[in-house]
Amino acid sequence: MPPESPSLPPSHDDTTITPELAAQFTGMRQSYAKLTRHRVIVLVVLALLIVVSLLLDFSLGPAGLTPSQLFQALLHPSSGTNAVIVWHIRLPYAIMAVLVGLALGLSGGEMQTILDNPLASPFTLGVSAAAAFGASLAIVLQWKLPLVPEAWMVPIEAFIFAVGSAFLLDLVARVRARSTAMVVLFGIALVFTFHAFVSLMQFIADEDALQELVFWTMGSLTRADWGKISVLAVGCLVIIPFCWRAAPAMTALRLGEDRAASYGVDVHRLRLMSLLRVSILSALAVSFVGTIGFVGLVAPHIARRLLGEDHRFYLPGSALCGCLIMSLSSIAAKNLLSGVVIPVGIVTALVGIPFFLGVVLKRGG
Amino acid sequence: MEEGTRTEMTKGLSVRDLTVRYGKREILHGMTLSTMQPGKVTALLGPNGSGKSSFLRAIAGLTPSTGYVGFDGRDLSSLPIGMRARVAAYLPQTLPPMVHLQVLEAVMVARRAGENVAAEQALRDSIEILEKIGIDNLALRYLDELSGGQRQLVGLAQALVRRPEMLLLDEPLSALDLRYQFAVMEVVRRETQARGIVTLLVVHDLNIALQRADDVVYMRDGRLLGQGVVMEVTTPEMLADVYGVQTRLEVCPRGLPHVLVDGVV
């Protein structure tokens, strides 16, 4: 309680807790507890929806296996075609979808806060485009790195460029620290630059490489395997605790850089560490599955509406929304056209573009 | 505070030779002030672009500066940003942005972002401060549905809830209606006195400054023109010097000072 002051007018005394004030305090505390409960419930419901979506993603597909066949194959990993379908296609695709969604949703959520821009995401700021260029070097030029196994050449070169572009963004953010708009414009410039480079690569590519590259830029879960899943999962597990620890400071940053700094938040460090997390997460995601647009853009907006902007709820919400969108897109990608698996990046773009326009128009109006 | 405490120079905020440069341009030219004491509200007055905001930001440690800024004998410039923020609460000139955060959450974040405060304690402090400022009815509304003036009050609550030893308020009244301008000044005064805070605020309304502040600091072009008890320093000559306007100072029948502006010098 604050110290007593003798010189104050009695009307507004600091320390006397009147019965009305006490009642109001109780009332407000209850409302706040209710709000927190509501948010936890929203997060739990999202998690449950993801589980349902995962199950659907696992059980629906062009092979048309029945639930009992799936179950049998799941229990006996080395028993024929069904087991191959379940262990090498269905499970890895479904799990990869969720992990990629998590990484993209979380990075999009953090990016929109640290760059203070509702259109920021790994896709709109060039991280995906840079990854595509990295992949094109591996696919078209057969550019080899020492000590890297052949099968990992494409994702690793994609990763190098994705991280590089994220650090370029960070460099711009630091040099022009006063203007986050500058960072966003620079990101858009990166998108166009890398698209031009990728076009150049496509132009000089031979027929096979061209096909592979075009397919890569479409973003597809068919590249998933257990090795990549493990790497991405470990990446997420390592990075998520740091996101969680930064959440209160990130909420403060939403109130403005000056304000956050005046609360004792080291804004510069917060931004730098966040960009580091975001670049690793998003680069891992896109380098394994190719360009997946709009998930990192859309998920934070949904989370913000559902959960508000207290980052202790908003960041997990954004991650979970990303999981759900990717998982649902994966189901759609397999089942929209019978017998064909559409690259999932096409589905997320088709769902995401109307949403993107909605965000732009809403801010314009 | 008794007049006698004036001689105890270690208490309060000391500023010596404070210089701020943006690139090659010097904004503050070595400002040296006499110590500002706990429990006193000092109004910082000066024309646009005179360096008032830079002065506050430099004291808060948000703008790089040279010179000495000390509080109760401690050199603030040697403190890391987190520690410095515990001493000084700075309210920026801009209003809190329209984010999807409830007022109560926004105030709690201000309490908790920089230091370890239990959620329950932060909640209690936040509700108390909202009640004090008279916006407890807004507690559960979202910032993005409030008016500019309401958000400015939230900003003030965010500064006060941190229980600073020093309050640096950059135009806390700019978006408020007449009644709230005086109400906010009352709250600031009361908190300043009750907690022994050193309060420094930028206002543009001379009459509010004359009637509600204890001391004034006049500055122009990054230099100090005058500092002291309001009615001792404020003279038509000073105002002509600071603002370039012709004024009369009159005391109304109720004993309150008023500035009447007759025109440009």
Proportion of helical residues of chain A: over 70%
Low-confidence stretches of chain B: 1-8
Task: Tally the helices of chain B.
Answer: 9
CATH topology of the largest domain in chain B, what is it called?
Rossmann fold
Q: What is the makeup of the main sheet of chain B?
A: 6 strands, mixed
Instruction: Give the assembly state of these chains.
Output: heterodimer
Instruction: Indicate the structural class of chain A.
Output: mainly alpha
> What's the pLDDT, averaged over the residues of chain A?
85
Number of domains of chain A: 1
Number of strands of chain A: 0
Q: Share of helix among residues of chain B?
A: 25-40%
Strand content of chain B: 25-35%
Mean pLDDT, all residues of chain B: 90
Q: What's the Cα radius of gyration of chain B?
A: 18 Å
Give the tags:
heterodimer; A: 365 residues; mainly alpha; ABC transporter involved in vitamin B12 uptake, BtuC; 13 helices; disordered N terminus; B: 265 residues; alpha/beta; Rossmann fold; 2 domains; six-stranded mixed β-sheet; four-stranded antiparallel β-sheet; globular
